[in-house]
Amino acid sequence: MAVCVFSSLLTVLCVGLYGKYTYAEACTDPVVTPASLLVEYGDPAEVNCSIPSKPETDYTLGWESKTSQPATDTETSVMWKVDSLTNWEEADGLQCFFTVGSNQCESNVTVTIYKRPDRVTLSSVSDVWVEGDQTELWCEIENVGPGHKLSVRWSRADPKHNSSTFTQFSESGVPRLGK
Ligand SMILES: *[C@@H]1O[C@H](CO)[C@@H](O)[C@H](O)[C@H]1NC(C)=O
Ligand SMILES: *[C@@H]1O[C@H](CO)[C@@H](O)[C@H](O)[C@H]1NC(C)=O
Ligand SMILES: *[C@@H]1O[C@H](CO)[C@@H](O)[C@H](O)[C@H]1NC(C)=O
């Protein structure tokens, strides 16, 4: 009798393991809409992430983000949403993941955040300009981004005497130009 119980316990265990093995589903990459975002700094933004159908087994569909990490284990879509996008780092790794058992699939969203300058000021280093002498002008551009995509152009009001400079800045570069 004891052997019988022992053996039926083994059978149950085996069936349990077998069942788990056969139902471990592979994941597919979740669909993100839109796949890329161009957002002005401070504006709202949202991206929908979805899967075609619910897996048979436990799953998680969720977002990897610096500001908001919504997730679901009952729905087939989950929305990433911010009222005001003010984290520049969001552009480095917004990702939707879909985990089924030990399998994980991901889809990345390409995010570009930009900001128009608060102020552009032009000033002369000296108050007096002497004919034939060199002079220096400063152009200051405040709170603009992203810095690595920025270019600044100098041009004169008189189109016959253009003296334009295109300059690229690094993210940390303080835009100070003299010419
Ligand atoms: C997200 O996308 C899925 C699939 O296209 C759609 O069924 C769902 O309604 C969308 N969710 C929202 C909030 O738009
Ligand atoms: C998605 O982003 C992650 C982290 O930024 C990166 O490691 C991965 O290679 C990217 N995947 C694709 C398919 O671009
Ligand atoms: C100077 O720049 C202006 C504005 O971009 C342009 O219309 C003009 O053709 C340029 N003139 C010369 C001489 O390059």
UniProtKB/TrEMBL annotation:
Keywords: Signal
Region called Disordered, residue ranges: 158-179
Biased composition (Polar residues): 162-171
The UniProt record lists the keyword Signal: yes
Superkingdom of source: Eukaryota
Gene Ontology annotations of biological process type: cell adhesion
Span of domain Ig-like: 30-112
Molecular functions (GO terms): integrin binding
InterPro entries tied to this protein: ICAM_N (IPR013768), ICAM_VCAM (IPR047012), Ig-like_dom (IPR007110), Ig-like_dom_sf (IPR036179), Ig-like_fold (IPR013783)
Leader peptide range in chain numbering: 1-24
Xref: PANTHER family: INTERCELLULAR ADHESION MOLECULE, INTERCELLULAR ADHESION MOLECULE 5
Protein name: Ig-like domain-containing protein
Organism from which the protein derives: Pangasianodon hypophthalmus (Striped catfish)
